[in-house]
Design goal:
The complex is a heterodimer of chains A (233) and B (133). Chain A has 233 residues and is α+β, with helices and mostly antiparallel strands. In chain A, 61% of the residues lie in helices and 12% in strands. With 133 residues, chain B is mainly β. Chain B has one domain. Classes of the chains: A alpha+beta (233), B mainly beta (133).
Chain lengths: 233, 133
């Protein structure tokens, strides 16, 4: 935070006539306006970089020393000048606020809508988008041509990879289907958290032939959700 | 190792940790990355710092490293805000590598998080992980 310095006030104290006294009062008022405005700006942006910016800008402001150096004008004229400088200050502070909007705030603004973690309507919308995403993968798989040779050999490799998974996973594999580019593996909700833990190892065993995986969840008929993995080459 | 078309949020390889409950013994953080000197293959996980929404062309991460004594494989994983697995993409590499992993935008929704998982042969290392954003 920036406050008028003792040196600035000692400059004011060198005036002796009435006009100078009036000017000193105006200048002092203006100084505190500046202090208040800068405090408001500081309060909105509490990070260290914001404070550094404010400190750097303050000496460049044409106050209050320039006012005291321009003594000899009538008080009304000074008041006009003060108003103009106040308007200029407002403009500068508005500009500062724009500059001080941190990249984090910018990203957050760009990346956020209603938060599905806290907003039920946003959660319902996120679920709808997710169901649409899985439906696209399912449709693409069902309309994919069949390469019998590739399908058989890849499905065998898939089953082999699953057979050395944790028993909690391998005992709950509901189906394995391969077509010409993609294999679809459905695993029951009973695999639970073990599936998540085992996932990198399971996927790693297939990485040489099937380097992309899309995951989704579908209703498995008992109110719970099975995991569906689409492995593609 | 490559000419970025976009800004990269480079993370030095020592950000990577042993995957799951594996002992870190033999995983060496060095000034030029992290290396597996355990005498056997080791899996590591490297957090990915995503600073913006994924662009229409997908979210990409460069992974730079070395696998001079075998084959390394790396995956870019994505999980949604509900900790559900969304998808992954991978590469395998030998020798010194600099490979790009890209997930489609649909697998990198708002509030999702991403990580790079790599299996490193003995002597292999990760120099850095660089999200493109």
């Amino acid at each position: 935070m920036v406050y008028p310095t003792a040196a600035e006030y000692s400059t004011l104290s060198r005036c002796n006539d009435a006009a100078c006294a009036m000017k000193a009062r105006n200048t002092k008022v203006l100084s505190w306006v500046l202090v208040i405005l800068l405090a408001a700006c500081d309060g909105q942006h509490g990070d260290a970089s914001a404070q550094i910016e404010v400190r750097a800008m303050a000496p460049a402001s044409p106050m209050p020393l320039q006012l005291s150096a321009a003594s000899g004008t009538v008080p009304e004229a000074e008041m006009v000048q003060v108003r103009q400088q106040l308007a200029e200050l407002h403009r500068e502070i508005a500009e500062l606020r724009k500059q001080l909007l941190s990249p984090r705030d910018t990203v957050k603004a760009a990346d956020s809508g209603p938060d599905p973690r806290h907003d039920p309507a946003a959660r319902a919308e996120a679920d709808r988008v997710e169901q649409g995403r899985v439906a696209v993968s399912e449709t693409a798989f069902r309309t994919e041509g069949l390469d019998a040779r590739w399908s058989q050999s890849t499905a065998a490799a898939m089953r082999a990879a699953l057979s050395v998974s944790d028993e909690t996973v391998r005992d709950h594999v509901r189906s394995v289907e391969c077509r010409s580019q993609t294999c679809r593996v459905e695993i029951s909700a009973d695999a639970g958290a073990t599936l998540e833990q085992d996932m990198p190892v399971l996927i790693g065993r297939l990485g040489n032939t099937l380097s992309n995986v899309t995951a989704g969840r579908i209703d498995q008929g008992d109110g719970r959700q099975a995991t569906v993995l689409y492995f593609s080459r | 190792m490559h000419s970025p078309a976009f800004a990269l949020t480079t993370q030095q390889g020592s950000i990577c940790k042993p995957y799951a409950n594996v002992s870190p013994t033999g995983l060496s953080s060095q000034l030029n990355g992290i290396y597996n000197f355990s005498g056997a293959a080791m899996n590591v996980i490297c957090p990915v710092v995503r600073t913006a929404a994924a662009p229409a062309g997908g979210f990409s991460v460069w992974v730079d490293g070395n696998a001079s004594s075998g084959t390394a494989y790396c995956y870019l994983y994505s999980y949604n805000y509900n900790q559900q697995f969304m998808g992954a993409t991978s590469f395998t590499a030998t020798g010194t590598f600099s490979n790009l992993l890209t997930l489609p935008q649909s697998q990198v929704p708002t509030y999702s998080s991403q990580a790079v998982f790599c299996g490193l042969p003995n002597g292999g290392g990760i120099f850095d992980v660089e999200p493109v954003q």
